[in-house]
Amino acid sequence: MKLGSLTRHLGVAALAWLLVAACGGSSGGGSASCSASAVKTATSASACGGLDALTAAAKAEGKLNVIALPRDWANYGAILDAFAAKYGITITSDNPDGSSQNEVDAVKQLSTTSRAPDVLDVGMAVALANTNLFAPYKVATWGDILDTQKESTGLWFQDYGGFMSIGYDSAKVPTITSIDDLKGAAFKGKVALNGNPKQANAALNGVMMASIANGGSLDDISKGVSFFKDLKKAGTFVPVQATTATVKNGTTPVVFDWDYLSAAHGKDVPTWKVFVPSSAILGGYYAQAINKNAPHPAAARLWEEYLYSDEGQNLWLKGLARPVRQAAMEKSGKIDKTAAAALPPVNGTPKFMSDAQATKAKDYLVANWDAAIA
Amino acid sequence: MIAAGNPAVATNVGRPLAGGRRFSLDWIGVVPFLAYAGLFLLLPSTIIALGAFVNADGAFTLENYQHLSRSYVVKSTVDTTVISAVTAVAGAILGALLSYAIVMGSPNGVLRRLVVSASGVLAQFGGVTLAFAFIASIGPAGFVYLFAQAHGFDYYTHGIWLFERTGLGLVYLYFQIPLMVLVFLPALDGIKPQWREATESLGGNTWHYWRHVAGPLLFPAFLGATLLLFANAFSAYATANALINQGQPMLSQQIGGALSSEVGAFEPGFAKAIAVEMIVIVTLVTVLYSLLQRRTSRWL
Predict the structure, then answer these.
(1) Is residue A39 domain-resident?
(2) What is the ipTM for the molecules in this complex?
(3) Quick one: A361 and A262 in the same domain?
(4) Which residues of A are less than 8 Å from B249 in CB distance?
């Protein structure tokens, strides 16, 4: 037993040494190759002969399956086109309007078929619940992502996000400079949430933001519930579901929503403004993950490398989503300054809910929201 | 339920098919119905009722049914029942009056054809489209409201009632009345003008005619149609969800919430328990209906 274990350890050590040697060789010349079998388990580009070898392998596959990426969401249309043109890889974009849960369901149902999605872009709750479906991978710019925004082995890593905000039509209501402004008579019958906080993540964060601004904390959403209760009593908060249609026709001129989604209303309503209160900056990010049974494992990894390159990050930024490497790129000067300037201004330190805090908030809402609002 | 309320169908029980006393094959006729009811009514109901006894780990539990006592479910139960009952009764009365007006006109007239085809379309016109039609017209930014407000008539001074139970009831009436016209018109057509003439030649007045002839004949159909309207409102989902998304008053919305939550309030077992509660309420109303039906048919 002991001897066997020893030889196995030696074997692993030898293999590791060989691997390191291979990487060392490839980084200079770029002549190393990334075989179809090795790429399936490659946890970084350098583990498979470097970026050039990975690119060659991806081009050989020639295809990439993506899912639930709307072309008008965070500039994905431009990103998909740019990737396809740059590498000559054909992208199959399935179910563009699907939800995070749909993505995970597709991974399970299509399993090892060639139609299964290669890469996923999912909400955090779904990412955390399904890590057994993902392959660990670290992009070249891994170091720029904060430790709190990635799983340590690379099963998921956050990609872009934004801050909870109050979007409003400045032609219909006065300028908003604090959440308490909403208590004024000018806002009567005009404030809405994007969804029901018992169900929708954006709405839950909207209530949480109101809580933080009113003396609550990430651990205490109750102040937010009583804030909306007061607004409801005053006839300010309306229970209608805010949608693009209700914003466009003016039924909901004030909406709590993620800043990058809210900013998109500017297309329909030119006087639409987005306000992020400095007293309650609440952030939320989506995450990338690679399907462990990806039919095109090299293209999947190359897609991630592209998304996390300066070019990919700046494309997200143009879609008003804040890329995860934004701070690092501001430091290095690689950021697209015009695109960054178009974002709603944010002054202060952002807060992020942990998984436990989100669960606690949800439990409180399930028990108290309906009674507070009815 | 519709069939039970319709005297034409109720009296249409066929005679036994020809056949010997020993080899009766009468039951064959009912097989398609039993198969249909079994597959589409009993089987799903059973799956739901049993599913509600299972927790997230697949083990037996009574928790899902106990959760029905949560205050918001109790409130939704009351709200749903009241809204459904009010819109059913109001829809039935208004729909019956409209049907009566049509029947009094020419049987092949333009008015009748117009109203019947419009009812056929409007009875199915529900969901987000209907809710938004109301939001865009009489809503707080709708053109009707803006026009009324500009002319000194602000009907939202005491709050935006369109997004309250009152508004939901009004929107529901929009599909309840046409549905009533569709199901009640055949019953009214069955009333013969000769009966009225007979009443009058026997010395009866309008009151006698309605009290002793038309009323008792139409009442079972009216009750049956009201029950159908109740179930129709009771199970509606999308319209209510688009209009009142917060503090959800309808039980169907609570089911939707428990099934689609992306923030972790995903409770499929609990959703099934609410569905069972809805089945029980509709069953109770149906039993009440058949008791009334038995009483009213005694008058005949």
Answers:
(1) no
(2) 0.78
(3) yes
(4) 374
